[in-house]
Design a protein that fits this description.
With 324 residues, the chain is of the alpha/beta class. It has two domains: 168 residues, Thiolase/Chalcone synthase (Peroxisomal Thiolase, Chain A, domain 1, 3-Layer(aba) Sandwich), CATH 3.40.47; 135 residues, Thiolase/Chalcone synthase (Peroxisomal Thiolase, Chain A, domain 1), CATH 3.40.47. Helices cover 31% and strands 24% of the residues. The strands form four sheets. Strands 1-7-6-4-5 form a five-stranded mixed β-sheet, with helices on both faces. It has a five-stranded mixed β-sheet with strand order 8-14-13-11-12, sandwiched between helices. Helix 7 links the parallel strand 11 and strand 12. Helix 6 crosses helix 7. The chain is globular, with a radius of gyration of 19 Å. The structure holds coenzyme A (COA). Coenzyme A (COA) binds next to helix 2 and helix 6.
């Protein structure tokens, strides 16, 4: 039997840099109440959003990904030629081909990059980070840029108050590279395909969701996934400095944090609440929340962060990372 040479593996992986991008246009709850039957008090109380950003005509999944990706590469102190692979997690490109990753790589100047899109909806970034980490770990990639970028306003019915008040547009990115020790834990991922109908697309290509069912699922099933990710990394809830769940609804975020605190997470654990001023940006929400928390001085290099994404599929994924 012929034996083939395998790529030279590395002892661990880590996030080397982070970046994010948001469109300029700020949309308040009062703005939305002018076009649909809703109001600021209801949205703040039920979802926790104060304002969000909507893409302008020039903003696309690719343009926002390029901006976030360029910032992450600069933050890592690298240049495009130091990367060889680009993953763009998204579920909102207008057309499945050409993929976003090849365009993003070209626009960033990452020549001949391996590039592919990954669709696990709002869990996409954590899926992408898991794949990126494994690519680097195995030696298949030197350094990988993983981006979550979404223009949800392209698939939201602006008159549907159960979705139009929640979703928004943005991108978040991370550069993954080798490390002497593991600083990205194994991914805990899965799907609940039996619940596939809970979030989907209408015939008119608008996103729909069974809000209450999704809420119940997220507030009961996601904390155990986060605990599994901790276990896979050999840590306990008390080790977590910052919790960064997908920013779906502030009440879901708070419910996950409460469950983790019951399992031993500290009261002073920082809990990402980026949804308040960014809305639900699907696969962009986790890297962008990390980037914003760091900019606000709420997380620091070396902090243990627990990430957990969830969304249509229903899909979910989580892992522990040490903050860059
Ligand atoms: N503004 C004002 N009132 C609204 C409203 C809005 N945008 N949406 C619903 N309402 C009203 C309803 O008409 C209903 O009124 P009634 O009691 O007089 O009949 C009441 O508020 C409750 O409606 P309900 O649909 O039960 O609201 P809810 O509390 O479940 O909140 C969601 C709706 C969508 C915000 C909530 O279910 C949710 O966030 N679910 C999770 C969705 C999610 O996370 N999706 C992304 C996954 S990645």
């Amino acid at each position: 039997m012929t034996t083939l040479r395998r790529a030279a593996s590395v002892p661990g992986t880590r996030i080397l840099g982070l970046g994010s991008a948001q469109p300029e246009q700020v949309v308040t709850n009062d703005d939305l109440s002018k076009t649909m039957d809703t109001n600021d008090t209801w949205i703040r109380e039920r979802v926790g959003i104060v304002e969000r950003r909507f893409a302008g005509e020039k903003d696309t999944v690719v343009s926002m990904a390029v901006e976030a990706g360029a910032k992450a590469i600069a933050d890592a102190g690298l240049s495009p030629s130091d990367l060889d692979t680009v993953i763009v997690a998204n579920c909102t490109t207008k057309s499945p081909i050409p993929n976003a990753a090849a365009q993003v790589a070209e626009l960033l100047g990452i020549k001949a990059a391996g590039g592919f899109d990954l669709n696990a909806a709002c869990a996409g970034f954590c899926y992408g980070l898991g794949v990126a980490s494994d690519l680097v770990l195995s030696g298949s990639s030197k350094r990988t840029l993983v981006i979550g970028s979404e223009k949800l306003t392209d698939i939201v019915d602006p008159t549907d108050r159960s979705t139009a008040i929640i979703f928004a547009d943005a991108a978040g990115a991370a550069v993954v590279g080798p490390s002497d020790e593991p600083r990205i834990g194994p991914v805990a991922w899965g799907t609940a395909g039996d619940l596939v109908e809970m979030i989907g697309m209408t015939e008119r290509q608008h996103i729909y969701q069974e809000g209450q069912s999704v809420f119940r699922w997220a507030t009961t099933k996601i904390a155990p996934i986060a605990l599994k990710a901790l276990d896979l990394a050999g840590l306990t809830p008390a080790d977590v400095d910052v919790l960064v769940p997908h920013q779906a609804n502030l009440r879901i975020v708070e419910a996950i944090a409460k469950k983790l605190r019951k399992e031993g997470a500290r009261e002073d654990m920082v809990v990402a609440d980026d949804i308040v001023y960014s809305g639900n940006t699907s696969s962009a929400s986790i890297p962008m929340a990390m980037d914003h928390l760091r900019a606000a001085g709420k997380i620091h290099s070396g902090d243990v962060a627990l990430l957990v994404g969830f969304g249509a599929g229903l899909s979910y994924a989580g892992q522990v990372v040490v903050c860059p």
